[in-house]
Write the structure tokens for this entry.
Amino acid sequence: MRISFVGIKGGIGKSTIALMVAKELSNRGFNVLFLDRDIFSFASNLAGIKNSFFTQVARGELPRDYFKDLGNLTIARLFGEGVLFFKEIEELHKDLVKKEIMEKSYAELVKRKKYDFFIIDNPPYVTMKSEVVEHELSMFRKIFPNEEIYRVYLSTGLLEDVEITKKYIDETEAEAPGKALGIIVNMVVDKEKGIEVLKSLYDNRFLVGVIIPFIDELFQFQGSIEDLPVIPQIKNFVDSILKMEKKIITY
């Protein structure tokens, strides 16, 4: 199963949740590949991964040391930080040799273990037309044409974020392969308002709806992945995914 985490905003909140989901699945004995294609590289930085897959390929090099195994969990850094990936993709468009290196090395990565789950951490406001999506997803589909693809959307409780997120969900679901899986309202300060926001975003397209309170230790987390706590809402979220159970999760 491939689960992409998407939202109008990136950064620590979305990446932390995606990483907690990946960690919880791996703790339960599943082999998980976490593909970090977020421009902030939060998970990769926590794992101490300095090299990125596309940066090395763009230089004409065989990619090395861009992933790390942490038990059943593998973290792979796909892009350099910030806007570097635009330059990297441009290089790959120019050179067929580099493209061949990219496709061969990517296949080696995703097939090096029999992964049960592929967790994708995306840049903010990513679309199906974004090059950061097109290249990686097209390679993935060639290798795993029948793999189930799902999306988890994240929003804060801010009114302006909610309205933009609604539009973003409609636009993405109209063109993206696979299905919507979950909607998460993150960093909620007022529980009742959080419930109202979730109700406004949650519809029949979603299996699971989750409200996550603001947790200071997670917002400022800079430790190791091994020390990252998995909060109860994420454990319940994983339960629902594994059972394919329709559920609303609060705190």
Observations:
- The first helix runs from residue 12 to 27.
- The chain has a mean pLDDT of 92.
